[in-house]
Description:
The protein has a domain at 10-100: Alpha-Beta Plaits. The protein has a 4-stranded antiparallel sheet, with helices on one face. It starts with 9 loop residues before the first strand and ends in a 9-residue tail after the last helix. It contains 4 helices and 4 strands. With 158 residues, the chain is of the alpha+beta class. The protein is elongated, with a radius of gyration of 31 Å.
Amino acid sequence: MKGILQTPVNQYETVFVLNANKSDEELTQTVEKFKKLIEEYGKIELVDIWGNKKLAYMIKNHVSGYYVLVKFSSPPEFLKELERIYRISDNVIRYLVVKIEETKKSKTMREKKIAKLTKRQARSENTPVVPQEEMSPRKTAVNISQSLSSPESIPNQS
């Protein structure tokens, strides 16, 4: 396998809007068709069907659409094929494909959160469990006032 070039795999999100005037069976078939296409060339992480929504403005004489969001990972070459099939499909009113890039800031924030959680977990594993009655502020205040009033607690001034 040394001679085969490894193509990079990127994270993507696609939202496509289908003609809401079609039957439920046709909509389901169209969604399945795109899921199978994406699975051929990549890996699907999430399929979120938003359902029928009113469009903000008319698109191709439609006032509502059937929205579907798919998060997936694939090689960048696949996007041209996916967009070509979106364009030639009669049921697709509109589509958008976006590459998800992890910025340095989001990466460092995620790393900080992970480090903070691991520190917190390590501390909780090393810290002994204190019974609730020992942690009571009332008992602590009473114990402190008693120890201050007793003559043994006052250091010798010799």
